Amino acid sequence: MSRGAILFAFNSPKYDYYAMAEYTAKRINHFLDMPVTLVTDNESVPRKPKYKFDNVVKVIPDRNNKRDWGIWIGIDPATDLIPVAPASHYASGGVRTDLNGHSSVPGLYAVGETACTGAHGANRLASNSLLEGLVFGARIAEDIAANLPEFEEAAAQDAFDFLLSPSIRGELQRAMSRGASVVRSEKSLRETLHTLEKLKSASTIYANLDAWETTNLYLLATAIVRSALERTESRGSHWREDYSETSDAWTKRIHQSLSNTGDWRSSTEEVFNDLSVAR
């Protein structure tokens, strides 16, 4: 028998799992060249599927070990379906840099998954970032060694009132998972942006690690949602229900920048087939 898969989709009043499942089935079929049968909660499971299935239960060595079997979280893979949720890889871009790792902030370099160097396409791959880290890491080290500035005392920070309270982190993550994850639309993105606008008033004067991380997450989330809303097409890991096709008009990078006064600005640059860009 040929290889294949069955994907079960159980709908929810809160999330459109049907749309997620349909998207996932298409991606499995496209990348693995594997036929996928999509079964919804209104249909019965085929009793004799025509495809051969790999049995994950066989690779679990000790049935008596409840931790190995996952029963400690209420799932027995020998008898139960294993719930699967789409993973969200939100940022396929990064901090814009030149070929020596310079960002738009003097003295600040970016490399690897943090950076947008042009070494990636519309899908970010982990192995790309490893190679990029080796190449651009060496370039950055050479650039720093050749351009070491005179030592200066760090400038004093008068206030930290731009930091956001760590208490908003959970709501921020839930908003992004609901509206800006695997399946997106103008409606879901605008709802997410509305939530982000409300959260930015939750400032704190305590400059601790949690506050810095939460603030960075908030800024990245805002840049992602603004860009996803602007890009009226589907490309790579960015998939919109309302614009499901790729458009040649959007062979561009979207840049988001934040001014000293806290205002966002968006711009684009065209990308050509050789990955060069229009300046």
Q: How would you describe this structure to a colleague?
A:
The protein is 32% helix and 10% strand. It has helices at 17-32, 66-69, 126-146, 169-179, 186-199, 209-230; strands spanning 5-9, 36-40, 95-96, 115-116, 252-258, 264-270. Strands 1-2 form a two-stranded parallel ribbon. The protein has a two-stranded parallel ribbon with strand order 3-4. A two-stranded antiparallel sheet has the order 5-6. The N and C termini lie far apart (54 Å).
Question: Secondary structure elements and their pairing?
Answer:
Layout: E1 5-9, H1 17-32, E2 36-40, H2 66-69, E3 95-96, E4 115-116, H3 126-146, H4 169-179, H5 186-199, H6 209-230, E5 252-258, E6 264-270
Helix pairs in contact: 4-5, 5-6
Short description:
The protein is of the alpha/beta class. Helix content is 32%, strand content 10%. Helix 4 runs antiparallel to helix 5 (186-199) and helix 5 runs antiparallel to helix 6 (209-230).
